[in-house]
Design goal:
homodimer, 397 residues, alpha/beta, 6-stranded antiparallel beta sheet, 14 strands
Chain lengths: 397, 397
């Protein structure tokens, strides 16, 4: 419905995603509650706040669905296969007809039985060397790309693009048996249209084996996937969106929904400079700050607190740009105490001259829980941003 | 599901809709926050409150869908075409087989090219005179009705009722080209069943033209519609509902869901007398107060505040009737600052001996945001009213 209501206008929306910012208390306080955040506090006083469920109450999201939801896409409807997410994570561009799959380097014994599914977790350096050795660039009419990931992980991309447009199909079985003591599975088509794809995969394994040696003398595949067909934010919301993020996977996610990817630095200072320089050119800015999430996954409460305080010092820079709508939220929570993504709702703050400010005085989990936006599904974040930017016509007369 | 649970009983529900009551702050306070409302405040203290989204977060509703939602009807499922709403707005009764369409008086040049889609916004008086001149009462077996609206607007109704029951169908193209510099479009059927309707429309235009003169020498049509097929509140909720409202469109909306329309006055005092006189005869009362919305659309903050204070003085009259359930809410917000309907959730108050009162001490946007009902979709307003009136059996054993 929203597609029929949206209008193009000059107002600007800035969505700042503090990756994994939410936490749970340690000694009575969460990371946000422990941090000194005078700028966020002031902003909270002038804003309306709430908490969001990325998927639904109790569900812990991966980064893919959590972001899709914030971008206004139903994460249940648009599911991103593992192969695609891994490809995005290593910075591979995927065409609509490409099939990507996650690979593991593994160890098999003389009888071809898998004895280590991760080849002793070889180093990332070793992984790169092996990928360099595996010069298999084409099988039949299908172009092949092999991209090393971390430790024993890599991504295999079968290109469905090019002069001949080979017809690839992701509906094939996995070769990774997911346990040791058995041989790898052959790749089998689940539908006849996928026969060719399965053949290519099996041929790849055959040709790769002579080029491999212990401990990484086998490859295992799981999660064959094509990129989901997602209508762009331009089409759906008449936005001219861009993304400022330092990590490949988020660049890939942003690209999936049609955002232009800006900047090449690695620090918040780099990112904010990119934002300032490009402020006139777009009307939707996805600004991603990653490091808090990594610190949460490390279980490093103190470092996460410090990073939040660092971010707080940048808040005036964002406000100086005078966005018509400024949203600050997380994609998911990453409590240091849990060392992982969690299901806890994300604190959410919306600042605009069209809000009714609530009584919230800090940007913390507990404060936002009683905020004026209440608890809502993150899928409504984008409609709320569009509304406060006066980019939506009314529904019905 | 609710239809299977509902039971007929003698308890009485009074739904007071303060049209467009919600606002956004001007100098730190909304209209409700600025008004002195001792009676509403006392009521809020004894009630449970919350805020409602008429459609979904961020969506600004027209009056039609906003009211349907409050009456317990999914406004996405039951969409009311523009022609029907316009007809309701000028007080025309529509039968199930009638087709209504919005008309504009327009100006065309000697070559038949539209040069002004609104005929210079002729006066409402002039409009009435033209409609009087256009004595086209029947074409073939279809009875025709022409009802003047404001300025250049009118409503054309093709009657599908009567002895012969002509088969009319709204699936035809619009004649309004929606821009100048081109001739009006012919009305074309989009499905074969609509061939007759398209012919009647084209014949109407042909016959009208010789009766028209500059500047209003053409008619343009858009928004052909039949009334939606809506099961009545009697059928769905076993209610005996009535409506007390002073504006045609709201009478029409109420009639669409089966309400009996009461009263003929124009002031709140007239309305409340109608309510008092008819209190014994019904079990669901839709009581509509319109003027606050108009003042919001005018951008008249002070007058909207004063009108809210006036309404407040009537609150004891409502309470004296001792309704089993009293709800006070808006259909949508109309902030004076925005001079238009908005997406902001509506403050909602439910008073009944079966509520759990919350900590709310005033009937304002900010207070209701933290009310015990939380933020909810307005479609749940009716089930909540039925429940607190003990009109719902339990679901399952």
């Amino acid at each position: 419905m929203i597609e029929e209501l949206v209008i193009k206008s000059g107002t600007k929306i800035l969505l700042i995603v503090l990756d994994g910012v939410g936490g749970v208390p340690v000694n009575g306080k969460t990371e946000l509650e422990s941090a000194r955040t005078p700028n966020l506090d002031n902003l909270a006083k002038e804003s309306i706040t709430g908490v969001t469920d990325p998927i639904s109450p109790g569900i812990t999201p991966g980064s893919g669905p959590a972001h899709l939801s914030l971008f206004g896409y139903d994460p249940i409807k648009y599911q991103i296969g593992r192969g695609v997410l891994e490809a995005l994570g290593v910075g591979v561009d995927l065409g609509a007809n490409d099939v990507a799959v996650r690979g593991n380097f593994a160890t098999v014994d003389d009888n071809g039985i898998v004895i280590d599914r991760r080849a002793g977790r070889i180093s990332t350096e070793e992984n790169k060397k092996i990928c360099n050795k595996l010069q298999i660039r084409q099988i039949e009419d299908v172009k092949i790309e092999l991209v090393p990931g971390k430790e024993h992980r890599f991504v295999l991309v079968l290109r469905g693009e090019g002069g001949v447009q080979p017809q690839l199909d992701e509906r094939v079985t996995e070769t990774d048996p997911q346990r040791t003591g058995v041989p790898p599975n052959r790749c089998e088509p689940l539908v006849t249209e996928a026969t060719k794809t399965a053949n290519i995969v099996n041929l790849f394994v055959e040709r790769a084996q002579p080029l491999l040696s212990l401990p990484a003398n086998m490859v295992l595949f799981r999660g064959f996937a094509k990129p989901p067909k997602i209508p762009s934010m331009q089409e759906r919301f008449k936005l001219t969106p861009c993304a400022i993020t330092t990590y490949p996977m988020y660049k890939g996610l942003a690209k999936l929904v049609g955002m232009e990817i800006l900047g090449s630095g690695s620090t918040i200072e780099d990112e904010i400079k990119t934002l300032e320089v490009n402020w006139q050119k777009y009307d939707f800015f996805y600004f991603h700050i990653k490091r808090i999430d990594s610190l949460g996954e490390d279980g490093n409460f103190e470092a996460k607190v410090n990073e939040i305080e660092t971010i707080d010092r940048y808040i005036p820079r964002f406000i100086r740009l005078n966005p018509d709508v400024l949203v600050i939220t997380g994609d998911h929570s990453t409590p240091s105490k849990l060392r992982a993504h969690s299901w806890h709702p994300n604190p959410f703050l919306l600042y605009s001259k069209w809000t009714i400010p609530d009584k919230t005085i800090r940007f913390t989990e507990q404060e936002c829980m009683t905020g004026g936006l209440g608890r809502f599904n993150a899928i409504y974040a984008l409609p709320l941003m569009l509304a406060h930017a006066l980019k939506l016509n009314k529904f019905g007369a």
